[in-house]
Every structure is written in C-alpha cells, then in structure tokens.
C-alpha cells in the first residue's frame, strides 16, 4: 500500500464484479505460495504484495515499496543473473522474465524463488511503462532436486565401486542395450549401446550356456526375478565367472522390459576355492596345534575338540563331542574360588569375541589345577545367525607363575627383596600428610670401600645384611625400600620426630652390631640416617626426599654413624654446599686435565682366553695427589648439576683425538657410554660427526651405549641421534638391559646392534633360576632381532659356561679383564689386531 492510495492491483481485485472472483484470485496467489510484484517503470515505484513479504518472513508494515527492495534480499552470487533476466526482457530479447535465484529470509536463511513476469503496459512509442510478476517459493523443489542428484551420484558410485554392468532387453522389438561396463566385462571394447542379441549367447561358456539361457527364459515368461551365476569366454579366450540378476518390468504404456545387471566374481570364486583348500589345511592344523580348540553349538554342546583339548581335559575327542562345555570345563576364579561363566555362552549372546581377563583356573579330573586363558569367538552363519562358538584354551600355568615373578621383580629390588625406588615412592606419596609417620633416609658408611676392594659379592652381602636388619628391627607397619646403590629409605610409624630419632638411633646400634665375615676377615658396617617429617599435606615427593637426604648428609658430615633430623637452613645448606664443591671439583679436574680414560675388554665367550677386539671406555678422575677417584664419587654430582654432557663430550673427543690411529691399527672398536642428558642433546650428532671427520676414524669402530635405565628427556633428539649414527656406520648398544621396565620400549623405539644384559642378572646366574630365565628370554629376543648380546659383570667360570649354553656370545667382567688406563691397554695390544686380521 502506497501513500497515494490503494495499489492498482488491489483496485483491480476489488473492482471485479463478483466478490467471490476476487477472493478466488487472492486464494490462488496465497495457495501458490507466490508473492506479487508490480513495477511502475515511469514513476520508479514497485508494489510488493503481502504474500511476497510473508514469503520472506515479514509483516506488511515491516517493508516499504522501494523499487530496489527486492535486490537488497538477493543472494550476492545470484544478483547478476536476477538483474540480467529483467534487463533482457525490457530490451525485448525475451518474451517474459523467468529466472531462479535466492532471497534472504528474515531468519537469516536463504529461500529459492522462481521469478516470472512481463511488461503489461507500454506508452505510445512502445516503451515499457509497467511490469507485473510473481515470485514463487521453490525451496522445497530445489532441495528435492539436490537430494535426487545426490541419490543419483550415490547410485553411480555404488555401480562404479561394484564394477556392475547394466543391460535391458525389449521383449517385443528384441532390442538389447548394454552400458559400457557390460562391454568391458565381456571384453568387446567401446561401441554403441545397442548390441546384437547373439553377443550374450555367443560368449556363454559351453558348460553353462543351457542353464543360463533357461534361467533368463523363466524370468521372461513368469516374471520371477533371476539370480544366477555362469561363466563366459572373452574374445581373448579368458574365462570369467559372472553373477547375474534380472527382472521383468511392466509399464502401463509400454511393452514388458527385461532389465538386469552383472558383475565379475572371478576373484571371489577363485578365493572361495582357495578358502576351501585352506579350510582343509586348517582342519589338519587344528589336529596338530598345542592349544586346545573346542567348538560348540548355541546350546553350549561341544561339536568339535582337537587332540590338545582332549589332553587338557583328561578325556577323549569322541567323549567330549556332545557334552556340555560347562560340565567338562568348569572354571573358578583363582583368588575367590567363585565359579566363572562359560566364555562360549557369553560369545554367543554378545555376538562378540570374549577374551577372559579373570584369574581363571581349571581343576582337572586328576585333581591338578591349571591356570588357563580362554578366548571364545561366535560362529556367525552367512544369514547372520549365531550358530555356535569357537573356544581356544591356553594353559598358562607356567606363564602366570613367571608373570607373578616379573610383577614382583618390577616393584622389588632383586638383591634385597625390598621395595625398589618406584614402589617405595608410591608408598611415600600416599603417606605424605600423615601426622604419625616420618621418613628415614639411610646411607651406608664406607660401603664403596668394601665393594671396590673386596668385591661386588661382598658388597651385595652387606646390602642384604642391612636389608634384613631394617625389616627385622623397624616397627611393625614400616615400609622399607632400597633407593639404589647403598641408599635405603623407610616410612616409619612414629608419634613425632623425637620418636623417629629414638627409632633411628636404635637402628644404628643394630646395624653397628652387624659384622660381615668374608674371606676369613670381619668387616664393620655403619650407616648415617636422615629424618624428615612428612606431616605437611602440601609437601611433594621430591621435597620430602630431598629433606631426608639433606639430613642424612648432615649426619655424614658430622662424623658418620649418626642420626640427624631435617632442619631448614642447616643440613640443607651443608648439603647444597657439598654438592657445589663436588661439581666444582669436576670442573677443576676438567680444566687441569685430571680426567683419565680407562678401558675394559669385551671377550668372545667361544674363546674367552683370547684378548677381546672390543673395548668399553670408562672415565675416571684423579685427585690432586694423583689417586684415582671412582666415577661413583663424581658422576652423581655431575648428573645433578647437568655436567654429564660435558663429560661425555670430553670422553668422545679425547678418546678419538688421542687413540683413533691405534684403535684402527689394532682392528679394535670402542664403546662409549652416553648419559640421558647427553643423548637428549639435539646437537650431539653434529659434534660427533665433526670429531669423526677430523680424526678420520672408521665409524664402524664406534659403538655408542645407551643406558636402558636412564630417563631420556628428549626422545625425538635421541631417536634422531640413533638414526644418524647408524646411517653413518656407527653402532648402537642398549646397556643395562633388563634393569628397568623400559627395556622393551627402548628396543621398539631405538634400532640397536647389540644388547648388554645388566650385571644384576649375571652375578648369581649359577644359583638363580629366575636370572637364568631372564637371560634366556633376552637371548631369544636378541636372536630374533638379529643383534649381539653381551653379558656384564662376569666374575666366575661357571657363569661363562651357563651363558654359552644360553646362546650369549660375548661377556665382560673382572673374570676376564679389570679396567686399566686405555693407553696402557693399547700398548699391550700393539699388533694383536693386525695379526688376527691377517
């Protein structure tokens, strides 16, 4: 409605002689979902009907009659099309306006409209003065068209994916039409859609022709859909298997039409034949494998049992068939003794594979109990029905026993039986915040003196003696652990720190009362103990341990064989000062060239008396008076202050710069240990590469040992170093294998050339079945991976014999060779490698 009065179109409707006629016009417009527009080309105005505004979601009074109003709603991508359609009509190029475009709805969305209109009035010169049109909402139609197009794309995609050929046959005219894929399947190449009727018949395999023609004839006569398979012979003589479908289609205004599809199933037929042969092979295999295999029906009755199942169940195959699986294979939970449900029954009901995770045990007819693992999978017929289940039973009695041993070993120190560091720290973390507990940190006095002068066996005896004293003398409920080396810790239930001091003092008396009797001599044992309260719930694990450690160091500094409680600013300050002094001593030694490179031979266990051609490089520090300082006294400080990278780099550079020529002249290779800090350095390989290039040493002479127990901070850098080093020709060895839980993770992450078994599994090899089992398993894994194995810390001939029997090729230890300065070792080896090579 305009200000000038009622719009002419409205006047037209109201002026109709029959009011009902005007109502019909309005109803027609409303029912069609159309909006009317009326443009006065002379006045430059445009009327928009109420239905047009409602079509866009607006009320009558929300939009004015601006002639360009409709353009404001047109989608930007459709604007040119919409304008051009009107311009062409006004110019007389088209009889009417008819175009599709999108308009923006009030809700922000877009609707598709069909715009139709034309010039209805012209002036005396024939120029258009008025146009009237209607816009119809065709959004639903457009959506249907898109859906239909998508559906057609899906159908075509399915045909393409299935390599399906389509054909049709007009029964009255005899006209046969093939698509291109039909021609491809039959091997006749590109050509017209219509093919001679004889094309199909002539290509049928002689043995299948009669049956195929009879099947299509029945469909043509009865209308029953055809589903059959047959063979064809392509022009090149190749025989192919086809699967065909056909049906008779009736249209009211056309003769019946046969339509069909085919697809090449040659591979499926060949696979089915191969599967049948494989099935027979599997049947024979099931008769011979070691695992028990049983199949059941849906009623849980046994339909098949292999010989292994009969042996496990103490029965015969014939006796088992027909029996209920629960009657002949009753299971109980090993811990609770409660009966367990049948895995086959659960597999049938769930239609999924069931892998029992409980601690299942089976008590046989002879009374013996066996730990078992059973895995049941449903048998599903081609029609989707579950017809039974297959049960595979593994006797894991021995494996479960070993698993318990390994689980125990994972949380306990193998030497003393105490909790290891990880397990102890878990208990300590749980105890932090308790007001009735304290942390004791114990460090043995002069332990290294016994360990280094008397031998590792004597040192181990001291550690066991102390461990036994701790467990026997500390209060009930105490958690005791060995943190490593000669360091122990305990979470002790006490009333307060004074109570903890009394407990620790009593413990020191008990430890001092112990004396080690070894090789006809007696050795005194002493210890220093630090105490830290752990009643603060905000205390973290590292801080609690550091406080007890600081107190222990204070006790040592005060004269050893003492007890000290943590006091902020006293013991901790002394501890920090001591650490700085140790680190400073290392820096001075490096500056004053007081570091010495030692070497220890690795021997071939097949000829252990011969000098080894492989040497492990060891680092020692000399004191100001020339005495040798073992690595245990300066390496920990270097590690704590991040100096190990400097030590390792010095060892690499010094060894190659000083001894590369002698090493190659004697045909020797050297192994250099890399700390976790060094291995995590992204710049390590560029440094090593430059040294190799400068010294011209053969990369094959270099072996870099990665300590398995070290915590690598940057695995990406470590992996890159291993990759680059091996690519250049250097070798990688995994040291201390088995000492931690990350052994196999390292094997998966790093490609190595050799494995060095941790000495903890070697020293007591003759007396420990567990150690022999671990060494045997490591040997098996190494041989599977094609890597060499070196046993560390060999100290007796019996261990050599056992290692050889377990397939270990190389060994290292005091039994063969004690470490000595590398220059002395190389002088003694002058010419040995050359003679061997010749």
Automatic annotation (TrEMBL):
<dbReference type="InterPro" id="IPR029787">
    <property type="entry name" value="Nucleotide_cyclase"/>
</dbReference>
<dbReference type="InterPro" id="IPR001610">
    <property type="entry name" value="PAC"/>
</dbReference>
<dbReference type="InterPro" id="IPR001633">
    <property type="entry name" value="EAL_dom"/>
</dbReference>
<dbReference type="InterPro" id="IPR035965">
    <property type="entry name" value="PAS-like_dom_sf"/>
</dbReference>
<dbReference type="Pfam" id="PF08447">
    <property type="entry name" value="PAS_3"/>
</dbReference>
<dbReference type="InterPro" id="IPR013655">
    <property type="entry name" value="PAS_fold_3"/>
</dbReference>
<dbReference type="InterPro" id="IPR000014">
    <property type="entry name" value="PAS"/>
</dbReference>
<dbReference type="InterPro" id="IPR000160">
    <property type="entry name" value="GGDEF_dom"/>
</dbReference>
<dbReference type="InterPro" id="IPR043128">
    <property type="entry name" value="Rev_trsase/Diguanyl_cyclase"/>
</dbReference>
<dbReference type="InterPro" id="IPR035919">
    <property type="entry name" value="EAL_sf"/>
</dbReference>
<dbReference type="InterPro" id="IPR052155">
    <property type="entry name" value="Biofilm_reg_signaling"/>
</dbReference>
<feature type="domain" description="PAS">
    <location>
        <begin position="21"/>
        <end position="93"/>
    </location>
</feature>
<dbReference type="InterPro" id="IPR013656">
    <property type="entry name" value="PAS_4"/>
</dbReference>
<protein>
    <submittedName>
        <fullName>EAL domain-containing protein</fullName>
    </submittedName>
</protein>
<feature type="domain" description="PAC">
    <location>
        <begin position="97"/>
        <end position="150"/>
    </location>
</feature>
<feature type="domain" description="EAL">
    <location>
        <begin position="579"/>
        <end position="833"/>
    </location>
</feature>
<feature type="domain" description="PAS">
    <location>
        <begin position="278"/>
        <end position="351"/>
    </location>
</feature>
<feature type="domain" description="GGDEF">
    <location>
        <begin position="435"/>
        <end position="568"/>
    </location>
</feature>
<dbReference type="InterPro" id="IPR000700">
    <property type="entry name" value="PAS-assoc_C"/>
</dbReference>
<feature type="domain" description="PAC">
    <location>
        <begin position="356"/>
        <end position="408"/>
    </location>
</feature>
<dbReference type="Pfam" id="PF00563">
    <property type="entry name" value="EAL"/>
</dbReference>
<dbReference type="Pfam" id="PF00990">
    <property type="entry name" value="GGDEF"/>
</dbReference>
<dbReference type="Pfam" id="PF08448">
    <property type="entry name" value="PAS_4"/>
</dbReference>
């Amino acid at each position: 409605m305009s200000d000038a009065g009622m719009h002419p179109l409205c006047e037209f409707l109201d002026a109709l002689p029959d009011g009902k006629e005007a109502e019909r016009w309005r109803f027609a417009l409303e029912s069609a979902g159309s909006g009317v527009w009326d443009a006065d080309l002379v006045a430059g105005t445009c009327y928009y009907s109420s239905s047009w505004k409602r079509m866009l979601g607006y009320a009558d009074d929300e939009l004015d009659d601006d002639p360009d109003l409709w353009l404001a709603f047109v989608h930007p991508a459709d604007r040119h099309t919409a304008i051009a359609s009107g311009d062409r009509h006004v110019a007389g190029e088209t009889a009417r306006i008819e175009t599709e475009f999108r308009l923006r709805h009030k809700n922000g969305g877009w609707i598709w409209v069909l715009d139709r209109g034309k010039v209805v009035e012209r002036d005396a010169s024939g120029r258009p003065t008025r146009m009237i049109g209607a816009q119809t909402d065709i959004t639903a139609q457009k959506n249907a068209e898109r859906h239909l197009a998508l559906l057609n794309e899906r159908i075509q995609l399915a045909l393409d994916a299935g390599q399906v050929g389509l054909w049709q046959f007009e029964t009255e005219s005899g006209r046969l039409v093939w698509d291109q894929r039909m021609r491809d399947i039959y091997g006749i190449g590109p050509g017209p859609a219509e093919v001679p009727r004889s094309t199909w018949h002539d290509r049928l395999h002689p043995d299948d022709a009669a049956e195929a023609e009879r099947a299509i004839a029945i469909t043509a006569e009865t209308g029953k859909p055809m589903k059959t398979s047959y063979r064809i012979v392509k022009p090149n003589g190749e025989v192919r298997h086809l699967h065909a479908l056909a049906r008779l289609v009736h249209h009211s205004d056309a003769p019946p039409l046969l339509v069909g599809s085919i697809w090449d199933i040659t591979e499926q037929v060949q696979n089915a034949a191969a599967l049948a042969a494989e099935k027979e092979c599997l049947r024979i295999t099931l008769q011979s494998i070691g695992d028990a295999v049983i199949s059941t029906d849906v009623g849980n009755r046994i339909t098949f049992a292999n010989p292994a199942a009969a042996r496990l169940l103490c029965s015969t195959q014939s006796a088992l068939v027909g029996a209920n699986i629960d009657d002949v294979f009753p299971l109980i939970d090993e811990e609770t003794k409660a009966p367990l449900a049948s895995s086959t029954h659960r597999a049938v009901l769930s239609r999924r594979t069931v892998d029992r995770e409980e601690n299942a045990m089976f008590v046989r007819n002879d009374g013996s109990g066996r730990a078992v693992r059973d895995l049941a999978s449903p048998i599903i017929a081609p029609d989707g029905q579950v017809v039974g289940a297959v049960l595979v039973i593994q006797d894991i009695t021995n494996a479960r026993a070993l698993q318990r041993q390994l689980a125990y070993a994972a949380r306990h120190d193998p030497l003393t039986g105490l909790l290891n560091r990880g397990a102890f720290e878990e208990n300590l973390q749980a105890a932090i915040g308790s007001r009735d507990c304290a942390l004791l940190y114990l460090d043995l006095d002069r332990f290294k003196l016994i360990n280094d002068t008397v031998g590792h066996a004597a040192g181990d005896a001291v550690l066991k003696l102390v461990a036994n004293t701790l467990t026997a003398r500390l209060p009930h409920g105490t958690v005791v652990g060995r943190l490593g080396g000669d360091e122990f810790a305990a979470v002790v239930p006490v009333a307060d720190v004074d109570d903890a001091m009394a407990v620790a003092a009593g413990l020191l008396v008990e430890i001092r009362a112990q004396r080690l009797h070894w090789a006809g001599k007696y050795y005194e044992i002493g210890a220093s103990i630090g105490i830290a309260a752990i009643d603060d719930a905000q205390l973290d694990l590292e801080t609690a341990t550091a406080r007890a450690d600081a107190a222990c160091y204070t006790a040592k500094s005060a004269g050893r064989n003492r007890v000290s409680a943590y006091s902020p600013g006293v013991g901790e300050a002394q501890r920090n000062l001591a650490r700085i002094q140790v680190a400073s001593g290392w820096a001075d030694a490096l500056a004053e060239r007081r570091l010495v490179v030692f070497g220890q031979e690795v021997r071939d266990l097949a000829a252990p008396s011969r000098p080894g051609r492989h040497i492990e490089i060891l680092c020692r520090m000399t004191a100001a008076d020339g005495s040798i300082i073992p690595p245990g006294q300066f390496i920990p400080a270097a590690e704590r202050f991040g100096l190990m990278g400097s030590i390792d780099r010095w060892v690499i550079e010094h060894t190659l710069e000083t001894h590369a020529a002698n090493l190659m002249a004697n045909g020797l290779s050297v192994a250099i240990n890399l700390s976790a800090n060094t291995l995590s350095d992204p710049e390590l390989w560029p440094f090593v590469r430059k040294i190799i290039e400068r010294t011209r040493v053969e990369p094959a002479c270099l072996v870099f040992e990665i300590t398995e127990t070290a915590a690598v901070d940057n695995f990406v850098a470590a992996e890159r170093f291993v990759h680059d080093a091996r690519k250049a020709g250097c070798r990688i060895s995994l040291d201390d294998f088995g000492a931690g839980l990350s052994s196999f993770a390292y094997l998966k992450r790093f490609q190595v050339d050799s494995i060095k078994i941790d000495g903890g599994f070697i020293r007591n090899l003759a007396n420990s079945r567990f150690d022999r089992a671990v060494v045997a398993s490591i040997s098996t894994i190494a041989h599977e991976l094609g890597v060499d194995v070196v046993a560390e810390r060999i100290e007796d001939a019996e261990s050599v014999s056992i290692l050889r029997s377990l397939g270990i090729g190389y060994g290292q230890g005091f039994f063969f060779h004690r470490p000595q300065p590398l220059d002395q070792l190389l002088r003694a080896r002058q010419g040995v490698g050359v003679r061997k090579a010749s």
